[in-house]
């Protein structure tokens, strides 16, 4: 308990300093959020740079969400789901959560229907992207804009 | 330990496509939230889910922090034969839950 009690820092100086410290601690949090670039990178990881075709995929998600902590989401892909022609995987990504991944589902002809549902978290109003990987090696995608009133993870900010 | 709920038909016709709905108790702590003392709460999520039907994998999922707490997952499979569906959830902190449900196919 022999810490120096010198008034080395004035009240004003301390407040200014703590303000700067707060800025520094806040910045990495915003930087850690996924951006359209990290979203593109995550998509490229899955597709290997192959072309994303529009169509075949339907992303069912409410356009206006009150609670971002649990958002019902359904991805369905038009496919006969036969041994020759089926959906191999369904990938879902987001634009503005701390990281771009939502889920990767690996299915096959045994699935019968290429439909996957889950409840997801959305940290902000943003675009959600669904991608289907078909057995012929093509990729199909769709996206949906979602407006979130109460975002998931708001408690980390306050 | 965590409770898992699996809803699917007990009986089905051969070739019928059935829906399987699963719900499991889990906090799905994202690893991006700060706790009361300002430090980040370590990530604790379910990372992998797998469903096999008589030993054949029919659905596998990789989950992320963006999955809601108490993950609800639903998918489809074709009822091919009478047997057992096996479900396994694995994740951080050694989380592992296994469930089996039998189905009779006429």
Would you kindly provide a written description of the structure presented here, covering whatever features stand out?
The complex is a heterodimer of chains A (158) and B (106). In chain A, 22% of the residues lie in helices and 38% in strands. Chain A is α+β, with helices and mostly antiparallel strands. Chain A has a single domain, classed as Immunoglobulin-like (Sandwich), CATH 2.60.40.2470. Chain A is elongated. The two termini of chain A are 33 Å apart. Residues 22-31 of chain A have low confidence and may be disordered. Chain B has 106 residues and is mainly beta. Chain B has one domain (4-30, 43-105): Immunoglobulins (Immunoglobulin-like). Chain B is built from no helices and eight strands. Chain B has a five-stranded mixed sheet with strand order 2-8-7-4-5, with no helix packed on it. In chain B, strand 7 (83-91) and strand 8 form a beta hairpin. The termini of chain B are far apart. The A-B interface holds A 32, 69-71, 94, 97-99, 101-108, 110-122, 152-153, 155-156 and B 17-19, 21, 28, 30, 32-34, 53, 56-69, 71-78, 80. Strand 6 of chain A pairs antiparallel with strand 5 (56-63) of chain B.
